[in-house]
Design a protein that fits this description.
Helix content is 37%, strand content 17%. The chain is of the alpha/beta class. The protein has one domain: 3-Layer(aba) Sandwich (Rossmann fold), CATH 3.40.50.1820. Strand 4, helix 3 and strand 5 form a beta-alpha-beta unit. Helix 3 packs across helix 10.
Amino acid sequence: MRLRPSIFILPVLLLALALSISARLSPRQAAPPPARTPSAAGSRVECGALPSKLLGRSVRFCAVLPPSYDAHPDQRFPVLYWLHGLGENEQSFVGTSALALLEDLREQGRLGEFLLITPDAGRSFYLNSRDGRTRYEDFFMREFLPAMERRFRTEASRATRGISGVSMGGFGALHFGLKYPKSFGSVSAHSAALMEKPPEAVTNAAHHGFFEDVFGWPLDLAFWDRNSVFAAARHAPLDESWNIYFDCGAEDDFGFDQGNQALDRLLTSRGIRHEFHLYPGRHGGGYFAKHLPASLEFHWKVFREELKGRQ
């Protein structure tokens, strides 16, 4: 029998979600990796920390710089912001097989050169918290993006700036992409943590868990609704420039397949161009590894078309 969020005790759901995602990841290391790490295929990984006035602390990040970045110091590149899931951190792409997959796709000629940047977001869901103490959304849009595009040689244009993520990061990518359409020319997500309504377990005062950190307690349903991906989709402008890709496993352990299908229906009803796939699979590393190439190639296709149009 399949389990749905409505019958989970919330802390169990969240712990299982974190563990299922983290199973494919290296755990957070006691010490950060070297700031500059060349990969076997010639890319360079640069990690660091950005001081944030809005958060009152520094936020770690890692950037994958393509092989030509150092060889051609006057060249600028498209950029893909990649958002991690619950229980992950800024190492979740560069510290796993995802980086090797990226390099393999480049060697096969399926990807060209672009930067990939991933920040640490903790358990924020990439939102400003209800109590105002953690303004992660403001940090990401107002501090992180401008700082990264000053530090690295990006094209710094909508058409060459994409955003992607898995699970909690998929929620964040769709939220940012739909809410800030002038900032991102391509948007993708795998197994995005989408629920039209909060799990019933949240209404139990003994089991509100970490949702209090983001959505307050008692749970502010109006705040939940305002910050949902569905709200962003309902208010997204109607034009022909959308480039949206998302997929989910039909046997998703947390019922996120239902939320993803609901978003597909909403975008379709509004005439917003997108590509959605419901594939066989559950919520975990095997599913993500199998479908990550699709989103990377999706973004590269958008980048490539923009660059070709400038020639």
